[in-house]
Design goal:
497 residues; alpha/beta; 8% strand; SLC26A/SulP_fam; Sulfate transporter family protein
């Protein structure tokens, strides 16, 4: 047995650790998303057993992610829980298509600043929203509303003993998670998040504290395959923006996580297109079950690697433990205080904010830091999908601007033709500067324009240079002589007019 599975012991122990980390996070993400807690467990089970068995990345673990909490909550608020399955189903099918078409590897090309900005914006919205949950208050719908309403929420909490007790449990949960890392290594074999939830649950029961707890039913009771009415929503354009957002953001988060996990171990590297297919298959099944969307999650994945996992068996076993726990002991979930889960998510949101990266970027690349901040602010101010699109647009514009460096050198010996040398990348972004310099040349002198030093000459620039050459030659001077870029098949002197 051990000869067939040489890493069985390491994978078994790692699966226990990942399971202990996943339980409070599955439940917490579901509650924060405005859906029954069991739906988070179902997504975790599918992510472990189904996606875990498929090829792609061997050590990263999939399940409901805090990064999609805001988007899921908005979708449930707008379309209802019954339509969530359709959204996740179609998003999963889109992921399958992208994987089969080989699009998975392109996600590696997305700017790191946009990724960090996305995580920062998500973290801010999660923190703001879960502070309300920790106090037992209803959170505003928008990201800006959540942040702007915090002073009033704290004022309301100060006037309510129940809210203060609830806040204390949430704050205590965060304190346990943070301080747990300072305890001896032997103690840390129990994940801090699990220890915090257990302590909060024990305190709530021991002192009969008046706080809300998770409402739990059986797994079968919450499985709701999407019906005809839910599929009817696809006729409206509004839902498609949400579907595309689910597919793109879930894919990006999974593949960004894969790149990060690959840096944590020396095992087989991720096959990005296969991982995209695995995520798509998992989300398709989650959609059919009416559950939450899944992504690969860096928190669970890094715990898996740190626990010594060697093969995909650890993540599959973690899904098996989730299934057994949810089926055999659902009553245990009903004991968990909601403020404790809010505390876990506040801590998770805080870890998503890249404080060090922002500082380092500002020192070395202020433009990248600007993109990061604008992406984060856009997600808070508008929503996840449009915020990421704004960040991507800024990143593309910045890259295009930096890539279009061009140098114009003019040599005038006082007699004979004026020689103008263009080198670099001539694009429409630099066209005004190029034309200003050329039009300033004397109209009564012949000009030789040498483009052989250009690496790239776009159509707009070529057309504008040809027009300038015609205008300059029209004054009666000798026609402008143009030397084409070396990459051109016409790499010889030609007459422009």
């Amino acid at each position: 047995m051990l000869s067939k599975f040489p890493y069985l012991r390491q994978d078994f122990l790692a699966s226990i650790v990942v399971f202990l980390v996943a339980v409070p996070l599955c439940v917490g993400v579901a509650v924060a998303s405005g859906v029954p807690a069991e739906l988070g467990l179902i997504t975790g089970i599918v992510g472990g057993i189904v996606t875990g068995l498929m090829p792609g990345s061997s050590l990263q673990v999939s399940g409901p992610a805090a990064g999609l909490t805001v988007l899921v909550f908005e979708a449930v608020s707008e379309f209802g829980v019954g339509t969530l399955g359709v959204i996740v189903l179609i998003a999963g099918l889109l992921q399958l298509a992208m994987g089969f078409l080989g699009i998975g590897r392109w996600f590696r090309a997305i700017s790191v600043s946009v990724v960090e900005g996305m995580l920062c914006g998500i973290g801010l919205v999660i923190i703001a929203g879960q502070i309300y949950a920790a106090a037992g208050l209803k959170a505003p719908d928008s990201g800006i509303g959540k942040i702007a309403g915090l002073p009033g929420a704290f004022a309301d909490a100060l006037g309510s003993t129940t809210a203060l007790i609830s806040l204390a449990i949430g704050a205590g949960t965060i304190a346990v998670i943070v301080l747990w890392k300072k305890l001896p290594k032997a103690v840390q074999t129990v994940p801090g998040a699990l220890a915090a939830v257990v302590l909060a649950t024990v305190a709530t029961l021991a002192f009969s504290l008046p706080v809300a707890t998770v409402q739990v039913e059986g797994l079968l009771g919450v499985i709701q395959p999407p019906g005809a009415e839910a599929f009817g929503e696809l006729a409206g354009p509004a839902i498609w923006g949400t579907i595309i957002a689910f597919a793109l953001i879930a894919s990006a988060e999974s593949l960004f996580s894969a790149a990060a996990v690959d840096r944590l171990h020396d095992g087989p590297r991720t096959e990005y297109n296969k991982e995209m297919v695995a995520q798509g298959a998992g989300n398709t099944l989650c959609g059919l079950l009416g559950a939450l969307p899944m992504t690969a999650v860096i928190v669970r994945s890094s715990a898996n690697v740190a626990a010594g996992a060697k093969t995909k068996a650890s993540r599959v076993l973690h899904g098996v433990w989730l299934l057994l726990f949810a089926a055999a002991m659902p009553w245990a979930l009903a004991l968990i205080p909601i403020p404790a889960l809010a505390g876990i998510l506040v801590h998770a949101g805080w870890k998503l904010i890249p404080f060090r990266q922002i500082t380092a970027l500002w020192r070395a690349h202020k433009g990248e830091a600007f993109i990061l901040v604008v992406t984060a602010v856009s997600i808070v101010a508008v929503n996840m999908f449009e915020g990421v699109l704004i960040g991507l647009a800024l990143s593309v514009v910045k890259t295009a601007w930096e890539a279009s460096h061009v140098k114009l050198e003019v040599i005038d010996k006082g007699a004979g033709p004026i020689q103008a040398y263009l080198s670099g990348n001539a694009t429409f972004l630099r066209l005004p500067k190029i034309l200003d310099s050329l039009e300033a040349l004397p109209q009564d002198r012949p000009v030789e324009l040498d483009l052989s030093g250009l690496h790239h000459l776009d159509h707009a620039c070529r057309t504008a240079l040809e027009s300038w050459a015609e205008r300059h030659s029209a004054t009666g001077t000798e026609p402008v002589k143009v030397t084409e870029p070396e990459a051109s098949p016409e790499a010889e002197k030609v007459t422009a007019a």
